[in-house]
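Your task
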Amino acid sequence: MRVHIEVSPDPAGTSQNISVLRSNPVLVTIKREPILTEANIVSAKVIDTRGGFAIEIKFDENGTWLRRTIFRRQSRRSFRHLESMERK
């Protein structure tokens, strides 16, 4: 899992456009470098919820601090959680 911040397009190449797949795909510009990656995950599990399930993710100390700090600063911005589906 990678967490990216939505940003304005940057001609210097630090941003990229992605398509968020939905019934009506949405084009979003994100910062190329993720703020959090799978390296920051301590544990993850699927939990039952009313009518379905949820994924509970616990971050390491650095990941928790980054998430809290960035989410506070970016309260009006969108975050895109993108799962990396790399094939080896």
